[in-house]
Amino acid sequence: MGRWEPDAAGRLLEAALELFSERGYEQTTVADIAQKAGVTERTFFRYYADKREVLFGGGTELEATVVASIAAAPSSAAPLEAVVAAISAIGLLLDERREFARRRAAVIASNASLQERELLKLAALSTAASSALRDRGAGAAEAALAAETGMALFKVSFERWVASPSARSIADYVKEAARELTALAAKL
User: Fold this and answer.
1) pLDDT higher than threshold 70 for residue 1
2) Do 71 and 132 form a contact (C-beta atoms < 8 A)?
3) pTM to 2 decimal places
4) Would you say 48 and 111 are in contact if contact means Cβ atoms under 8 Å apart?
């Protein structure tokens, strides 16, 4: 493929996933990714700061979706309700990209530094959710607890979703995990 072909970012992402899966993350270079995508290294760096960001580029969109969903939640919604609705909303974005999510999760699971990066992205998402909840009037402790609980629900739901052969949406897994959390909390 030549440099002039459209969707360089998509081609870079696909090339990176293929190479990370075949060779491993550490053994794949930016030059390898660019070559496989049919672009120059310079083009790679127009889209991504480094090879990790190929896997984590969608974080801004997820964060914006969470914050907007929390802001749009009914005023009667409790903080945890608003967060559960928000993580269900990001599920709509992910449901369209299930195979990509599976492949990405496998690459991340195979590399400790990528797992660390994933945790940092989840922490940033939690911080954004907590801030959005405080903007709605929740106290700092309540907002932090609801946001962190929501991220735990998301993490468990996402892992179940990518591992399942079922066609169920990630929102179904979020609701299921929320019911399980409610049952668990009732035993306190």
Assistant:
1) no
2) yes
3) 0.87
4) no
CATH architecture of 58-186: Orthogonal Bundle (1.10)
Q: At what angle do helices 30-37 and 8-23 cross, to 10 degrees?
A: 120
pLDDT score, position 2: 46
**Helix, strand and coil percent figures for the chain, each rounded to 5:** 75, 0, 25
CATH class of 8-54: mainly alpha
Quick one: DSSP state of residue 72? H
Cα–Cα distance list, 14 to 28, 36, 38, 170 (Å):
13, 9, 12, 23
Token reading at 64: 């914006």
Domain ranges of the chain: 8-54, 58-186
Query: For 74-123, how does the pLDDT look when each residue is reduced to its tens digit (9 = 90+)?
Result: 999 999 999 999 999 888 888 888 999 999 999 999 999 999 999 999 99
Buried b (16+ CB within 10 A) or exposed e, 15-53: bbbebbeeeebeebebebbbebbbbeeebbeebbeebbe
